[in-house]
Design goal:
Elements lengths: L2 H16 L4 E4 L5 E5 L2 E5 H4 L5 H12 L1
Antiparallel strand pairs: 1-2, 2-3
Length: 65
């Protein structure tokens, strides 16, 4: 699955679970960031791989408090 499809899948899961729509930012080739309420949840360039959706949802929950 490519980065964009994974990002869309994450966005849908976050909307369904928390009622929040993460901001997905794409940049140069291979650059993808996920932010919630302006706070970074994930950066592909920094981490090099996308964690499972369940882990990203846990990060979103932690950012929300």
């Amino acid at each position: 699955m490519d980065l964009r499809r994974q990002a869309v899948s994450l966005r849908k899961a976050a909307e369904d679970k928390f009622g929040v729509t993460p901001k997905i930012k794409t940049g140069s080739r291979g650059d993808l960031s996920v932010l919630v309420n302006g706070k970074p949840v994930f950066g592909y360039k920094k981490e090099g791989t996308i964690p499972p959706v369940a882990e990203l949802l846990a990060r979103i929950q932690a950012v929300q408090g």
